[in-house]
Amino acid sequence: MPERLLAGPATTIRDAMTLIDLANPTKFLSLTARVLPWLVAATAILLAIGLYQSAAAPDDYQQGATVKIMFIHVPNAWLSMFVWGVMSLAALGTLVWRHPLADVAAKAAAPIGAAFTFLALVTGSLWGRPMWGTYWEWDARLTSVLILFLMYLGLIALWRAVEDPSRAARAAAVLTLVGAINLPIIKFSVDWWNTLHQPASVMRLGGPTLDRAFLIPLLVMAAAFSLLFLTLLLAAMRNEILRRRVRSLQMIQASQRVA
Amino acid sequence: MTALAALIRRDIQIALRVGGGALIGVLFFLTVVVLMPFAVGPDLALLTRLGPAILWLGALLASLLTLDRLFMADHEDGSLDLIVMSRTPLELACAAKALAHWIAAGLPLIVATPVLGLLLNLDAPSTSAVALTLLAGTPALTFTGMIGAALAVTMHRGGLLLAVLVLPLSIPVLIFGVAASQGAITGLSFGAPFSILCALSLISFVIGPFAAAASLRHGLD
Amino acid sequence: MMSLGPYASFIVTSYALVTAVVLILIVWIALDYRNQRQRLRELDQSGVTRRSGRSPADLR
Q: What pLDDT sits at residue A62?
């Protein structure tokens, strides 16, 4: 440690170059190739542990076995918002720093986030039927998550509507940042309004109110789904980089043919 | 300041003159409100209950229709590039255009509301309540819709995409607009949803111009 | 098997849907990867060169 402090500008420049290297898509591709197998393995293991713990979890005295739906509903709900947060950071990267990988990350994340939001809505609906007696209710939490899903779809439509990737990225970045307003509304909707959906029992100031027998499987599944998102995101980013490479090569090929 | 006033005046004049931008909106509003009783059935009691909702939905769809025009006409004749390049801050220019659009297209809707309320069997106090909520809420629709208009202006088939982008952002305005109307009619909570409606409009005055300006800058280069 | 109670079908359907959607995501991304690599191979064979001089089919 002391040598680093005394090393001065040379070390700093070397460290800075590593960060800038990561912005290089080629370096990113080789990093992904190395890291992806480990991520896949880690995700599979965590999912297996989580599923086993969910199956082994006791029945809730009120809800019975349907509490097991919580172990897949809540992680998907958390991720649906987390992914929009990741896309918002990427949007800042696009608009403020023009970071090349930010575009790629934002485009790759959108369909994955939409899938998680869809699953949150559907598993929530299937959980609601036995618990509340209805598949759907227009309360603040459900409505705002449905709006989030519609915004994901609009964002995906926007990505596909513009031919040039960097212009599409900038338009999508603006829409992502505007849509980020929905995130605090979703989070606090159960506190601000009288909703059918229950209030927060994990992410709250006083600490979780969930019993450990349910909290542990929930956190494991949440970690597993987060790793799943990271794995899928890196793989999708790799595809997007290759897709852009194909596009620019096809344009070179077309111009060579003309010449 | 003079530049912005000139921009507002120009936009209003164009909207009132060419192609009837303002009147088309009112006509569409009328069409929606007239179609509803055919769809719902002539049950007058039901129409009264649905009245505020139908009026709000009609106003929302009508303003969506005219939003397309906000930047597209200027983009086609090249004046959008001049506006983007001028010394006036683009955010203020966008706000000025949105204000002009609301005056030319939104206000006629509000004026038409009492007349259309008659078709829906709403009495005078109820229609006035709906008109008041529309007065507070249509600015929010225009200013948030402007974001979608700015994003869609540089795309060829932008019109449909505009609707898809703008609608999720308009849903809260619709919810609180109708809630406030119902609150005024039934005599129960009017203040809370109305304040939130006003808050939504105020927030959109800030976010709309900034987001629209950012979209125009990034989309036009 | 553990007893899932009277609402077993809801629980099973939820888990099945989550599995299905996750699998669809994985398959879609994997197929897209194969697609892009195939196209890069075709471009390589047709003789296009990248700015860096590397072959299009080279993943680095």
A: 81
End-to-end CA, chain C: 49
Distance of CA A204 to the CA centre of its chain: 21
Helix (H) or strand (E) holding A176: helix A165-179
Q: Which residues contact A224 (CB under 8 A, 6 or more apart)?
A: A43, A46, A47, A49, A50, A75
**Residue from A252, A29, A241 nearest C46 by CA:** A252
A174 touches chain B (CB under 8 A): yes
Q: What is the pLDDT of residue A140?
A: 82
What subunits make at least 3 CB pairs under 8 angstroms with C? A
In the DSSP assignment, the letter for residue A236 is: H
Q: Does C39 sit within 8 Å of A246, measured CB to CB?
A: yes
Spans of chain B below 70 pLDDT:
1, 18-21, 156-158, 220-221
Report the amino acid identity of residue A25.
P
Predicted confidence at residue A63, as pLDDT, reads 79
pLDDT for the residue numbered A130:
87
For B162, the enclosing helix (H) or strand (E) is: helix B158-186
Kindly list the residues from chain C whose CB atom is less than 8 angstroms away from the CB atom of residue A134.
none
Residue pair B139/B61 in contact (Cβ under 8 Å)? The answer is: no
Cβ B43 vs Cβ B168: under 8 Å = no
CA B207 – CA C45 distance, rounded (Å)? 51
Chain B interface includes A156 (CB < 8 A): no
The CA distance from A100 to A89, in Å, is 13
All residue ranges of chain A with pLDDT < 50 are 1-7, 14-19
Rounded Cα gap, residues A74 and A80, in angstroms? 10
SS3 of A17-81: HHHHHHCCHHHHHHHHHHHHHHHHHHHHHHHHHHHHHHHHCCCECCCEHHHHHHHHHHHHHHHHH
Q: Domain ranges in chain B?
A: 2-220
pTM value? Answer: 0.84
Q: Cα B12 vs. chain centroid, distance in angstroms?
A: 15
**Which candidate from A154, A157, A178 shows the least CB-CB separation from B211?**
A178
CA distance A132 to A154: 31
* Tokens linked to B175: 């919810």
